[in-house]
Amino acid sequence: MDDGPVIDEPIEDEPPPAPPRRIAYRHRLPTRLWHWVNALTVFVMLMSGLMIFNAHPHLYWGKYGANFDTSWLSFHRRPIPGWATIPSTYNLAAARRWHLAFAWLLAVPLLLFLITSLINRHAQWDLAPTSDEMRPRHLWYDIREHARLRFPTGDAALRYNILQKLSYVAVIFVLLPLMVLTGLAMSPAMDAAWPWLLDIFVGRQSARSIHFICAMTLLAFILIHLLMVMLAGPINEIRSMITGRFRVPPERTEP
What are the residues whose beta carbons fall under 8 Å from the beta carbon of 252, sequence distance 6 or more? Predict the structure, then answer.
């Protein structure tokens, strides 16, 4: 009996198996401890510093600056709203106490972190840009990838990219030390003990202006940093900064 021709129907390909989940150790303990201590400290210092700025919202260059002197930046009285300051109601004395208390939590852990990073070579191995990474083509490639929200995958995700390296080096080795030194330069007691501080910054008012510029630059870095964490996957990123363990994103397959 002829059953007619047999037609082979195509069999759909089975989807490829999911890549195995890979967990890597990403952040050392000193880095994680300093990150969270520094996050709290900078948060309090920025908000208390804004309250101090509210007391005289004018900035000058040089050694002198008062109400009738020419300022390079000037705002109306108390331009910073209460929700962005510590304390939330106007209190210059309390803001100074908050600011000075947490200044020790900024300066001492920063010094310890810098020393530890040099000893365990975290600064040299993880933060220092290589000559190849500093090539304009490499820089432009990383900028384009970030603009397209195409974050590193695979082994590349375990290393800082050049944009991260440049920003972290600027914050850790330039902005934060400058904030500490300019803060010391604004203290009459420290000026008496270390008069060279005023020579470096050409006066207490210049030190105050540089202090403010560094603080606003640091605030901009924090906002961009938080945005990148949210876009890259907040659970994985925050977990890696708490436990050190990071789930490595599988390699991206190019179309």
Answer: 150, 153, 154
Cβ–Cβ < 8 Å for 21, 247: yes
Between CA 180 and CA 210 the distance in angstroms is 11
Rounded distance between C-alpha atoms, residue 251 and residue 156, angstroms: 9
Q: Which CATH number is 23-71+79-247 given? A: 1.20.950.20
Q: How far from 97 is each of 92, 102, 249, 252, CA to CA, in Å? A: 9, 9, 45, 51
**Residue recorded with tokens 């490499």:** 138
- Burial classification of residue 113, based on how many CB atoms lie within 10 Å of its CB (0-12 exposed, 13-18 middle, 19 or more buried): buried
Question: pLDDT tens-digit profile of 195-235?
Answer: 999 999 999 999 999 999 999 999 999 999 999 999 999 99
Q: H-helix or E-strand containing 49?
A: helix 29-55
Please enumerate in sequence order all residues whose Cβ is within 8 A of that of 33, keeping only pairs 6 or more positions apart, or say none.
none
Domain boundaries, the chain: 23-71+79-247
Length of the chain: 255
Condensed to tens digits (0 to 9), the pLDDT of residues 164-187 reads 999 999 999 999 999 999 999 999
Report the alpha-carbon angle 101-117-155, nearest 5.
120
Residues 6 or more apart whose CB falls under 8 angstroms from that of 120 comprise 28, 30
**Distance from C-alpha of 40 to C-alpha of 106, rounded to nearest angstrom:** 9
Compute CA distances 241 → 30, 52, 210, 234, whole Å. 11, 32, 31, 11
